[in-house]
């Protein structure tokens, strides 16, 4: 669809939210425009995408009961995000909160 200039067409429904072809790639393709928090990014890739945030305080909040995150992803990804941002980042882990 993208190559045919039809990226705005709805290709998926995320719960009740329509998702266009381009938005789907931005979210789910490694290196997509919104691929900021993927667990499959290397530490270097995370630092490249998030390191600019070290110039201001950042609170990362993760929930260990997030229904949209695979069970084995948190809390490790939270610590990796914190390290990628730098010393200005703080991590808050919520044990039983959902998305």
Sheet with the most strands: spatial strand order: 1-2
The major β-sheet equals: 2 strands, antiparallel
Shape: globular
Average the pLDDT over all residues and give the rounded result.
88
Which structural class do the helices and strands define?
alpha+beta
Poorly predicted tracts of residues: none
SSE string: EEHHEHE
Taken as a percent bin, the fraction of beta residues is: 15-25%
The tally of strands reads 4
User: What is the radius of gyration?
Assistant: 15 Å
Q: How many H/I helical runs?
A: 3
Helix content: 25-40%
Give a topology summary.
Layout: E1 10-14, E2 17-20, H1 21-28, H2 43-50, E3 58-63, H3 76-85, E4 89-94
Would you summarize the structure shown here?
The protein has 99 residues and is an alpha+beta fold. The protein contains 3 helices and 4 strands; from the N terminus they run ββααβαβ.
General description of the model:
The chain is of the alpha+beta class. The protein is 26% helix and 21% strand. The chain has helices spanning 21-28, 43-50, 76-85, and strands spanning 10-14, 17-20, 58-63, 89-94. The strands form two sheets. The chain has a two-stranded antiparallel sheet. Strands 3-4 form a two-stranded parallel ribbon. A hairpin with a 2-residue loop joins β1 and β2 (17-20). α2 packs across α3. The mean pLDDT is 88.
Provide key terms for this protein:
alpha+beta, two-stranded antiparallel sheet, two-stranded parallel ribbon, 4 strands, 21% strand
């Amino acid at each position: 669809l993208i190559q045919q200039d039809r990226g705005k067409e709805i290709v998926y429904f995320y719960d009740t939210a329509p998702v266009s072809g381009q938005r789907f790639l931005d979210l789910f393709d490694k290196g997509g425009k919104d691929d900021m928090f993927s667990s499959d990014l290397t530490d270097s890739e995370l630092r490249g995408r998030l390191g600019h945030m070290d110039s201001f305080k950042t609170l990362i909040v993760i929930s260990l009961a997030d229904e949209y995150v695979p069970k084995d992803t948190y809390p490790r990804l939270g610590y990796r995000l914190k390290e990628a941002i730098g010393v200005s980042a703080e991590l808050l882990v919520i044990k039983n909160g959902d998305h």
